[in-house]
């Protein structure tokens, strides 16, 4: 992997981590890249390892988000939808620009992979205080 991609990926992980870590979360950037045939769009893949007390602030994602839970379980509360539990081996999709909050439900924390496609250069998430 080239050094520029690794550096950009690391920066992405820090941005995501700072927005999602009122409690403890370790992030690992897996990939950040643009598309030749989708001008102005980029993809980010980040792994999260979160503790049992992890909860996000209310926020939106400017792009489409896909999450695959690999360990534990989390609750996803998207405005306008019923809150749902997603456990290891399950995946879900979050629509863009919908306020949401996520939290760990399992006592041992959780791990999940986030894949987001969104506007190039835009933050992966934006705070949405009530």
UniProtKB/TrEMBL annotation:
Signal peptide segment: 1-25
Cupin type-2 domain residues: 49-107
Keywords: Signal
Alphabetized InterPro entries for the sequence: Cupin_2 (IPR013096), RmlC-like_jellyroll (IPR014710), RmlC_Cupin_sf (IPR011051)
Coiled-coil region: none
PANTHER family in alphabetical order: CUPIN DOMAIN PROTEIN (AFU_ORTHOLOGUE AFUA_3G13620)
Protein name: Cupin domain protein
